[in-house]
Amino acid sequence: MTEMAERFVSPTARSATGVDVVIVGAGFAGIAMAVALQRAGRDHFTILERASALGGTWRDNTYPGVACDVPAHLYGLASHPNPYWSGLYARGDEIWRYLEGVAEREGLGDRIRFNTPMTGARWDDDEDLWRVETPTGAVTANTLVLACGRLTEPRIPDIPGLETFPGPMFHSSRWDHSADLAGRRVAVVGSGASAVQLSPELAKIADVTLFQRTPAWIVPRGAHPYTDADRDRLATHPEELARLRAELYAEGEARFASRSGDAEASATAKATALAHLQTQVPDPALRAVLTPDYAFGCKRVLLSDDFYPAVSSGAIRLVPSALAAVEGTTVVASDGSRHETDALVLATGFATTRQPYADLVHGEGGESLAVHWFEGMTSFGSTIVSGFPNLFILDGPNAALGHSSSILMIEEQAAYTVRGLVERDRAGGVLRVDPGAEAAYTDEIADAAASTPWLTGGCRNWYVDERSGRLTLLWPGTVDAFRARLARADGSEFVHVRAARAVKGVT
């Protein structure tokens, strides 16, 4: 636990049994929700956090080279601009410290219950409230907000013999800093965002072999540091900081066209990526195995200036094949090649389309979110779900972005949640989502996504649920479009509102 987190630990004696809102998760989404509630004058809430510190993704991911692919001044809460980022793209530890700073400035310390996972949540049909189970007892609440994140549970591949590997083995999001990898033969499994960031750094101290099942489209990162003068100017001239954020926002919105399949924009972006590859990898044979055979934008587009040079120089030994088996210290690729290995790093992504919390949350009649989502996640407004009264989900169904900052989406969802609470109070206490509104929104998403590379680009990606073939993670539009869509929500998405009994302890 960090020193900052220690100051945030709630006294055991304070654990309330009844609150107006329970927020599950103290990452970006949970902190953003808490900020929105406090600024709306809604102070009767608590945050349940399973770990010993806040931060979510940026607490968990500590691998070498971890950083954000979104410009730093766009990757923060609008209510908490930060003029002191070290450069155009922030390091992971910087973002973690930023979140701790936000929590401290907002006075969230005594509202976060650390080491308190949600082990279950059930809507009480008789009492019209949520009963949230934790290892230290139940918490009752009028409203439940799931801010659990979507990249939290590592996906461990099913590889024969993997469990028998005798050396250090860990997922990139659970980096084992006690493992001495200097001078060792390290196999990195995967070639997505984490692998592309960590492999060049790891190659500075270790003999790295990378198993690439599918190459990624990679464009120049173009990162540059901010000088002390830059930071001082932004700190003393907030209008310049606001203008910079607006410029970065506009650039992000413009990127949507190339990611979503606009022919001209996609061709331009693809040409940029191919030129980047050709410039940094002179060997045509190596370039060939690093060139994707699917549409630009079909998978997450990566940013890097050092991955290709590390592969081209031989600092990273590239195996253009998936890992197929592990036999003691020998790892075997799908192409039959065998490689002696001292340590295994699994940069294999996360459980995304099947969120782990879905099995824990039960709505009206006892149905779980997992059952409701048996053919893929659905919602209205990417935030609320029929059959689950007074439940709001941040960063869940169709709330991720492939072109800009997910924080922008989270802030819109938090604002929508606050509006929902106002409607809940006005209408009598219980908000039930119209199943027809959820179905119509799901159809909207399907229509908007139908011709995009995410569905037609010839790749497998973590945005699409394989059970239904629907796009369930990404919002298939701009941030402006999402804001406009939520702004059009006039309350008609809710039905069957009836007065709820007061939760004990809530005034």
TrEMBL record:
InterPro entries: FAD-bind_Monooxygenase_sf, FAD/NAD-bd_sf. It holds the Pfam family Pyr_redox_3. It comes from the Bacteria. Coiled coil: none annotated. PANTHER family: FAD_NAD(P)-BINDING DOMAIN-CONTAINING PROTEIN-RELATED, L-ORNITHINE N(5)-MONOOXYGENASE-RELATED. This is Cation diffusion facilitator CzcD-associated flavoprotein CzcO. It comes from Microbacterium immunditiarum.
